Each structure stands twice: as structure tokens, then as C-alpha cells.
Amino acid sequence: MKLAVTYDNGQVFQHFGKTAQFKIYDITPEGKVGFSMVTSTGGQGHGALASFLRMLGISAVICGGIGPGAQAALAELGITVIPGVVGDADQAVQDFVDGKLVSNTEALCSHHPSGDVGFGCGHHTCGGGCQS
Fold first, then answer.
1. Taking the model in full, what pTM does it have?
2. List of residues 6+ apart from 100 with CB closer than 8 A
């Protein structure tokens, strides 16, 4: 299994559609965290990130806030979303593997139009629940 985390300086980045990097983790069949690497999104954002993750073979993504359009795009490609996660990216992955990671569905960016394209979260913070 391959898992992606929105990533910034060791932390879970708090806005899926604006993440500049993902940290990709291989999870072994034995349920252990294996190889990991940081990859750039190449400037892609929002809806384009779903296809980007699918091309990498990602099964699940851990993130902070995420809009309904991005959620739908990921779900359509069979990628599980674990939203509302804050803190250290490596610890979040270990918690996921250990079955201890809890998603926070209140961290969904419900203020975005369903397409999510072209809209930013520059006026608030996503991840701890969107606050306008």
C-alpha cells in the first residue's frame, strides 16, 4: 500500500488543494512503515492532485482540510481520504498503521464550490475546521 501525506517541513500541511509537497510512504504487507520520500506536486492544485496521486499508486491520503470537490475526485479514483489531521507527518502515518489515527470530518472545507478549482483558502486556516 502507498500512503500520501500533505507535507510541509515535517508537518501535515493543512490545505490539501494548496500543498506543494506530499510525503509518500510504502506500507508493507506486514503493516509496517517502509520506504518514504518527499515529492513535489509540480504546482498542481485542487482537482489535479487526485490524478497526480493516482499516477503514483496512492491508496490513501492523510491531510488537514479538504474541499468537497477534491474529496469527490479522490473517491472516484478509489483513494481513501483521512482529513483533519494535524502535527508530525511521520507520527500520523505510524498512528494510521497502528489503527490509532482518527479523522476529523469537521476539517472539511465546505465553503468551496463543489468543483473546488480556482478557489483558495488564503483568508482562513483549513485543518482545524475551516474558519472564515
1. 0.81
2. none
